[in-house]
Amino acid sequence: xxxxxxxxxxxxxxxxxxxxxxxxxxxxxxxxxxxxxxxxxxxxxxxxxxxxxxxxxxxxxxxxxxxxxxxxxxxxxxxxxxxxxxxxxxxxxxxxxxxxxxxxxxxxxxxxxxxxxxxxxxxxxxxxxxxxxxxxxxxxxxxxxxxxxxxxxxxxxxxxxxxxxxxxxxxxxxxxxxxxxxxxxxxxxxxxxxxxxxxxxxxxxxxxxxxxxxxxxxxxxxxxxxxxxxxxxxxxxxxxxxxxxxxxxxxxxxxxxxxxxxxxxxxxxxxxxxxxxxxxxxxxxxxxxxxxxxxxxxxxxxxxxxxxxxxxxxxxxxxxxxxxxxxxxxxxxxxxxxxxxxxxxxxxxxxxxxxxxxxxxxxxxxxxxxxxxxxxxxxxxxxxxx
Length: 386
What we know:
The chain is α+β, with helices and mostly antiparallel strands. The protein has helices at residues 58-66, 108-118, 124-134, 150-162, 180-197, 208-214, 232-237, 242-247; strands at residues 20-28, 33-42, 47-51, 73-78, 81-82, 93-96, 168-172, 200-205, 217-222, 225-230, 252-261, 265-270, 273-278, 288-293, 299-302, 312-324, 328-334, 340-346, 359-364, 370-373. The chain folds into two domains: 20-237, P-loop containing nucleotide triphosphate hydrolases (Rossmann fold, 3-Layer(aba) Sandwich); 250-373, CATH 2.40.50.140.
C-alpha cells in the first residue's frame, strides 16, 4: 500500500498552496483568548511540530484544524480548499490522541479496518495487512488491544489513522503516556513512518526533545502566539526571544550594553568585559540587551589559562557547584558581578574536573553567542512546564 506523496510548492500567484494554511486564526473563550490571530503554512509532506507549555494554545490550534473547535475568526485551508466551517468528518484529516481510543472488543486487525469497513471500501484485508506491516504489527493482528504494550497500542492507533489516507495526520501529545525509554524509541518510529508514507504530520507537544528529534519545522507557541518558527537547529542555535532561549534547552543570559555596530558584528560591554555577537544573531536595535550563550558552548579552564575559543574571554569565575552526569560535568560558575553561569563540559577524559571553590575563567567563540531584546523577561520560558 503506497501512501507516498510529494511535497508541493506554492504557485507564483500564491493561490495554489497544497499544504495546510492558517490565516489570522483566533479562538476566544469566555474569559480568555487561547489563540491570537496566528498565520501558519505547513508544507505538504512535512513533519511539523507545535511546541509550547501547557496553555499556550497549541492543542486549541490542533482542535480547530480537526474541526473539534470552531474558530472565532480566521481561516483554515487544506490542499487549496477552505475547510474552516467543514464538519470534522468532512475534513481529510485524522487525529491520533494520547489515550489511543482503540476499540477494546475488536482485535488489532479489525481496529485498523474499522474506518474502511464503515465506508465499504474494496480490498480491506490487503490494505490492513500492508498497514500492519508498515507499523511492524503484522504478527499481532489477532490480539486484543489489552494484550499489547503501550507502544504497540500507539502504533495501532497510528495505523488506524493512516489507512484512511488523510491529507494531514494530527498528533496530540501521542507519546505522553509512555515511559521515557519507550517514548524515545517511538520518536524514531514515528519519524520513520512519516518518511515512509510522506504524509503531512502535525505534532502537538510540550516536550522539546520530542519536537526537535522528529520535526522538520517547529513553531514555538507562547500565550496564543507563535514566538518563533524554523528548523530545530535554527531555533536552538539562534533563538530570537528569551522565551525560546529558555524553553528550548538552557541558556546563560547576561545583561550587556551595546557599544558598537558594524556590518558584521555588534560589540557589547558585559559588566566591564567586551564581547561581540554576529549581526545575524543580534535581535535588538536597542542600547541594552541580553547576551546569550548555551552552556555546552562555554569552555572552562584554570584562571589565566589559554582556552581554545578566541574572542570572548570571561575571567574571574569561581566554581560554585559541580554535577557529574556521566556524559558531561555540569558546573555553576559565580562571576564577579554575582551571576552564576552554567557550563556543560563533555567528559572526554582530556580535561580536568574542577571542584567547588576553584578559580576559573570562561571563554566562548563569538559565533555561538546571540543578543536579545532587553525589554524581554529574562526568565520567560524557564521551567515553564515543570
